[in-house]
Recover the amino acids of this structure.
């Protein structure tokens, strides 16, 4: 029997004893990377460093500078944080610690129980976390059957996890521990506590923020610049008293989806109505500028807002900024030499301002239509003239950037930022990233409307995200109002559409890792049919059947 394995690392084949840990394998390579190696991909699968190499394969190093590595860093830091809190306060003083949402590159937590959350306690937690990091305590992983996991979480008072695993079909559950503290986390972990030395803690709102590094600078803590508007929108979204997937599954299985669905849709409609009322009452707004990242539901939102504006006595006219694209041959190139359709320079800003200013003065203007097949701007006799009640509803990714509408008086503009800010957690310690919700929406819509495979959509997603980071997110706090387009029930509904598309990605494809992660994620949800989703719902923009022809 062969007692060695042949591993290909950085194009070099090396032999190692069978059963060697990946921690040992990477030892000689760690000096060659620009950040610590926190995981490996071996044989096409993500492997934690304590795992053993038992067969010949290619090994790719994952550092904290990689997206997967950065997520692993953050996940491990959360485990260290929870361990430190329970070490200091004990279970008798802590009812629960809940991870809610991102704030900058960190996470916002709240604490419930007898333990007072103040600066003194937070300083103690930070000191204890530093001690745990210095001690380099192994992060241990054990696999237990699902029934045992349910009993264990019940024993620990982690009822959110107990609920979650009642609905999961997998037979085994991975439990992570640092010494005597045990928890469940969705995703891989670092080898030991020494891998997460960079963090900070800040009191914020009713809880605190665990500040962590970005992938771009894995050894630096970014400046604490909370975005208060978007934070408040996320906070206000929690109206349905469902905060975890387990609670959603309970509701679906005991009462069906209809009540949750109707309540969620009613909440969104009342929010849109309030925004329309605010615009109407201002009396001086002529340009409603709507911006948001990919798959946030901008198109349906602009239609529904227009209906509400009409109900408030105004005459809305939709305008897509995309119709002001420069002719394709003039589109700027990005750093990779590809046409950059998402930069501001891809828009004929001069012509846009000229037309909008003319409309503001009451002149009759012929509006362009961009022909995406030919890549040319065309004029087809679409004239517009604004009267007293007329108002333009302008949708485009640069809507909040004043450089797009530099010639228009500030008082004539009303800015709206829309995004799908996930309101649901997997459980109290595992959040659902907002980007996951939007990616799933996009996979389904692209397949339905553009014939694009899930593989292609996943491959393009990093480029889309770079465009958002550059062109949308820096301006989100400029908005007069923010609208959260996420629906509490949507992932249970999207599961039915997304799974077949994700199963279509082959194991040898580079996009398989992401597809597999999303498939595992959908395992948590009880699926619901889409028949009861109203035809004006934001969700219809993605699954089809919208009355707005989106």
């Amino acid at each position: 029997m062969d007692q060695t394995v042949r591993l290909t690392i950085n194009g070099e084949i090396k032999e190692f004893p069978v059963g060697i840990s990946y921690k040992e394998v990477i030892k000689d390579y760690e000096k060659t990377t620009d950040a610590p190696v926190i995981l490996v991909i071996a044989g096409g699968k993500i492997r934690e460093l304590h795992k053993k190499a038992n067969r010949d394969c290619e090994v790719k190093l994952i550092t904290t500078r990689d997206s997967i590595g950065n997520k692993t860093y953050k996940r491990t830091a959360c485990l260290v944080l929870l361990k430190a809190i329970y070490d200091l306060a004990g279970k008798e003083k802590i009812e629960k610690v809940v991870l809610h949402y991102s704030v900058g590159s960190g996470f916002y937590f709240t604490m419930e129980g007898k333990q007072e959350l103040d600066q003194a306690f937070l300083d103690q937690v930070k000191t204890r976390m530093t001690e745990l990091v210095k001690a380099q305590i192994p992060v241990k992983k054990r696999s237990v059957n699902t029934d045992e996991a349910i009993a264990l979480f019940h024993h620990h008072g982690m009822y959110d996890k107990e609920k979650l695993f009642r609905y999961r079909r997998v037979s085994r559950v991975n439990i992570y521990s640092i010494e005597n503290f045990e928890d469940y986390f969705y995703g891989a972990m670092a080898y030991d506590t020494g891998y997460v030395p960079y963090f900070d803690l800040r009191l914020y709102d009713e809880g605190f923020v665990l500040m962590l590094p970005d992938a771009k600078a894995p050894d630096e803590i970014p400046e604490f610049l909370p975005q208060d508007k978007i934070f408040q929108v996320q906070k206000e979204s929690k109206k349905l008293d469902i905060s975890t997937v387990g609670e959603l599954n309970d509701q679906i299985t005991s009462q069906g989806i209809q009540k949750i669905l109707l309540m969620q849709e009613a909440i969104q409609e009342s929010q849109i109505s309030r925004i329309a009322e605010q615009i109407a009452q201002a009396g001086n707004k002529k340009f409603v500028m709507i911006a948001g990242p990919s798959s946030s539901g901008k198109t349906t939102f602009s239609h529904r807002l227009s209906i509400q504006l009409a109900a408030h006595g105004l005459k809305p006219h939709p305008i897509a900024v995309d119709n002001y694209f420069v002719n394709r041959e003039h589109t700027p190139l990005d750093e990779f030499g590809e046409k950059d359709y998402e930069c501001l320079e891809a828009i004929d800003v001069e012509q846009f301002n000229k037309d909008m200013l003319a409309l503001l003065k009451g002149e009759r203007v012929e509006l362009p239509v961009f022909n995406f097949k030919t890549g040319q701007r065309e004029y087809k006799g679409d004239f517009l003239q604004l009267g007293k009640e007329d108002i333009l509803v302008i949708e485009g990714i640069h809507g909040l950037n004043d450089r797009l509408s530099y010639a228009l008086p500030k008082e004539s503009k009303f800015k709206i930022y829309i995004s799908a800010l996930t309101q649901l957690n997997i459980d109290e310690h595992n959040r659902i990233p907002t980007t996951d919700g939007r990616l799933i929406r996009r996979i389904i819509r692209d397949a339905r409307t553009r014939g694009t495979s899930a593989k292609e959509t996943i491959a393009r997603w990093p480029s889309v995200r770079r465009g958002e980071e550059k062109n949308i997110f820096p301006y989100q706090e400029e908005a007069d109002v923010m609208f959260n387009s996420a629906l509490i029930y949507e992932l249970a509904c999207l599961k039915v559409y997304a799974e077949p598309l994700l199963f279509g990605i082959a194991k040898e494809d580079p996009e398989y890792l992401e597809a597999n992660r999303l498939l595992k994620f959908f395992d948590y949800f009880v699926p619901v049919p889409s028949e009861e989703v109203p035809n004006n719902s934001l969700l219809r923009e993605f699954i089809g059947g919208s009355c707005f022809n989106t």
Notes: Residues 258-282 form the longest helix (25 residues). Residues 4-63 form a domain with the Ubiquitin-like (UB roll) fold (CATH 3.10.20.30). The chain is about 35% helix and 25% strand.
